[in-house]
Amino acid sequence: MKDLEKIKELDASCYEFIKSHDLASLELGRYELENGSYVLIQSYTSKLRNVAKYETHENYYDIQYIISGKEIISMIPAEKLTVKVPYNPEKDITFYENSFEGIDHVLEDGDFLIIAPGEGHMPGVCADAQSEIHKAVFKVPVRK
Question: How many CB atoms lie within 10 A of CB 69?
Answer without folding.
Answer: 20
